[in-house]
Amino acid sequence: MLPLSRGRPRRWQHPLLLLSALLWAPALVAFNLDEEKLTVYSGPPGSYFGYSVDFYIPDPSTVSVLVGAPKANTTQPDIVEGGAVYYCAWPATRCRQIPFDNTNNRKIKVNGTREPIEFKTNQWFGATVKAHKEKVVACAPLYHWRTLKDSPEKDPVGTCYVAIQNFSAYAEYSPCRNSQVITASIADIIANYSFKDILRKLAREKQTGVAPPSYDDNYMGYSVAAGEFTGDSEQGLSDTDPKGFDIHGSFKWCGIHVACTTQIAKPVYCWSFILSELVAGVPRGAQNFGYVSIINSSDLTFIQNFTGEQMASYFGYTVAVSDVNNDGLDDILVGAPLFMEREFESKPKEVGQVYLYLQESAFLFQDAQILTGAEVFGRFGSAITHLGDLNQDGYNDIAIGAPFAGEDRRGKVLIYNGYSNGLNPNPSQVLNGAWASQSMPSGFGFTLRGDSDVDKNDYPVVPLIQALRIKNKHGLEQKTNDMSGNDKQKKTPPNTKLTKNPSNTSKIKINKIENLLWGYYGYHYLIVGAFGAGKAVVYRARPVVTVNAYLILNPMIVNPDNKTCQLPSSQLLVACFTVRVCTEFEGQSISDEIVLKGELQLDSLKQKGAVRRTLFFDYHQSHHYFSIVIERQKQLHCQDFLVYLRDETEFRDKLSPININFNYSLDESSFEDSLTVKPILNYYQKNSLAEQAYILVDCGEDNLCIPDLQLSAVPDTDQLIIGEENCVMLIINPRNDGEGAYEAELHIKIPPEADYTGVERNNKALRVLSCDYKMENETRMVVCDLGNPMVAGANFSTGIRFSVQHFENADFSISFELQIKSSNKINPTSNLVNLHINISAVAQVQIRGVSHPPTIILPLHNWEPKDQPTKEEEVGPLVEHIYEVKIMYVATGPQAAPTELLMILVYFLYQ
């Protein structure tokens, strides 16, 4: 990455202080990277402290952190922002600059004038930092060198320094210089140690050829990793030391250089590259689609390419190698942080992608698994690092940086866990940056460095603990001195002293020392750089505890009539059964003893406020909280709880299962408040169990009742007359031709015209039921209890009365809907019955009338009928009939009289 800004020169030479981790903002999703006890280092403002990071492990007992600050000022005279690398002791509190180079620019005489031959100002020393055992390599990619030509020119050749022998000696390595000059000052640097230990050109050194001019912008080698892809090695590099060699930021000015170095009779680097291949990212190659090349380490020939799918996505910006699915074959991960995603017809959004290529055999890879970023401009895939088996499930895990994602562009790091088919597509943990964007984003996640065991110890913790237990038989006393000089008990391994204490007056619990040992060795680590904020954060993995839990009910079917348990302080006998909870655990880097917090819930499927049918015998509650102390890994620990069944008169539900839930969690209060990293439960394992008990019912050997419910009904009238007092009784016949029906109820849907008035009680032939009026979703219902259970063979009749008066909006009939319902799982309902009763209207009408003239005498005088009359007068004289219709009763409803037609029949005879 090129410099983001160039400010005024800063001079900063004071030691760095460790920031308090209490200010750290916890992530929303958390698995086993500890976000509470982390280490945060801070660098000088504007120095880009955190641009590069690595672990420094010269021996198994020493762990430190290296942090590059490519814009830091040093004591070099006349050099402005030359860059530096800081040594940060872990888990101590301070950092200090490593004196790789304290000199000014070297000069030569040109035409009698001393002019600089190199240019270290703004060289970005510390942009790359890599360590291997006691050796450290730090590079300055913008270091310039003056060519020996008539006209002064300077080329950005870059340079690297190597520190060896625990920073006691240094050597410079800059193979891309033209006409390299070694002056006396360089001789002084290398005079203090064997020339054999210097990185220099060897017979086995390889380098790619200089790219032709047409490829100057390809950035060949912008990212580099190493792995085994040809099948000529039994073990991939990702399983060797160092793991996942990866660098990014090297431009293709003079190709890729792979150097070998040896100490006396002890190979260090060469064997790693001889047995492995290189993976180089070319983010602007292939017409800006980007590609990644696998390069043969023996002759640096190109073996295979992976090409990006989108132009300008910067495919190959970062590469990493890890055996993700643990099949013994190295896999390749490639970042494309500028990838743009288009959804439907929306505008493209820059979200970034990471591609995982799983190796099946030599030169054969599966189609890429693609992980896509979730936040626009987050630059997902800017950094990728191998974490080892972080969650201890047998598969390697990966961290991916999105340095400009999150609130205020604080940056995020997403942890993806491996499994047999690649990476789980959902991150198990998201680490959030704590520093808001000021003049520039903090870049949290721009740089990542993971390691599977930074202490690289060969100390088996279990034998150490076993030895301590043997010693403890004789009595042990632990004495430590704190920083104030006062003696006190303290769990700090470097200062721990164990002495015999025959008097046993100052014995300590051996498990405290065990926790101490577990907390110091065998963990996984992750360094996250946030160069914009000048921070570097060290996360430590929490040991993963995998708990196997079992819930056993005895008996599973409870006979309510078998009342063999007497309640405490009572003469009441109840039916009871036993709930047994068994747990065991396993995990790495954890002490033998753990404490779980357990919770048991009885009849947990019942809604809040409903009657719980079972209670704990000793507590008379349906909830119980308790502790589970497991003293040894893979040792089954069981606890029994006695549970009793309430009396049958206290509940109705006898058929549904009694659900017993067991939940557990780690008891955080049981861990010592020390440097020990607290364990965490396995994220991918459920921490709850459920089993079901059943109440014994009369349903045969399988305890499964299958009823056969039948229903018929008739009304006691077939007509309702508007205006009269209409009382209707439904005569209903429910029966059960199968096995018992539990919580059986008769449901009657009431029409709007009717009102429920009660149960018929005066007819001995009809059974009197217990019925209630209810509203169900604005529907009026009558619900009657038919028995719990409604036994097999039940067959009876009952009468339910209604009053029907509301005819304002009635049609020509009203309808009642009836059905039997039960809680049985099979055949829970009867047939549906619809009863229709017709509505009739009755009207009282008086009709009277007169005729004018009242009498006509035929034949008429002087009147002769015509054969073909055309006028009324030709038919006969006019006769008028006057009628009076009087309505004595007016009914309302669908057949009301005033709305009907009055029909008059007149007999007419013409002859």
Automatic annotation (TrEMBL):
Basic and acidic residues: compositionally biased ranges: 476-490
Annotated region (Disordered), positions in chain: 476-503
Entry's family note: Belongs to the integrin alpha chain family.
Keyword Glycoprotein: yes
Organism: Hirundo rustica rustica
Residue ranges occupied by any Integrin alpha third immunoglobulin-like domain in the UniProt entry: 845-887
FG-GAP-type repeats, residues: 35-97, 111-172, 301-366, 367-425
Biased composition (Low complexity): 492-503
Integrin alpha first immunoglubulin-like domain: residues covered: 541-697
Main location: membrane
Protein name: Uncharacterized protein
GO BP of this protein: cell adhesion mediated by integrin; cell-cell adhesion; cell-matrix adhesion; integrin-mediated signaling pathway
